[in-house]
Write a structure and sequence with these properties.
With about 120 residues, the protein is mostly beta strands. The protein is built from one helix and nine strands, in the order βαββββββββ. A nine-stranded mixed beta sheet has the order 3-4-5-6-2-1-7-8-9. A hairpin with a 2-residue loop joins β3 and β4. The chain is globular and about 45 Å long.
């Protein structure tokens, strides 16, 4: 899944008004170099944030309770980022009128309400 998160936590972490995410099963994510330079902070039991201790760049967030890893779209240079959804749009500080589904929180498949908000 690819999309945009508007929650306050992601906005603060990314230092921007919206965070572009890509969600992957853990066995699809491989750290090929620099693993010893990753720092970790468990903001919540659902969000274990990882960053590079050398440059400070944010790399990914492990969501163990969801069984997914969010690799930030900006750190995958060859990715054809094709967003399909906006999550936590109720918390947005930047309205984006792009025709994509806007979820109040997250889809029901991810444990959310599944409530859609107007574009």
């Amino acid at each position: 899944a690819m999309g945009y998160c508007h929650c306050e936590s992601c906005r603060h972490w990314s230092a921007g008004p919206v965070n572009a995410f890509t969600l992957w099963p853990p066995d699809s994510v491989e750290i090929t170099q620099g693993a010893d330079h990753l720092g970790s902070y468990a903001k919540t039991e659902n969000s274990h944030r990882k960053w590079c201790k050398n440059c400070g760049g944010h790399v990914f967030t492990d969501h163990p309770t969801m069984g997914l890893i969010d690799v930030y779209a900006a750190v995958i240079p060859t990715l054809d980022f094709t967003p399909g959804i906006h999550v936590f749009y109720e918390e947005t500080v930047l309205r984006i009128h792009d025709g994509l589904v806007k979820q109040k929180d997250v889809p029901t498949e991810m444990g959310g309400s599944g409530v859609e908000l107007p574009d």
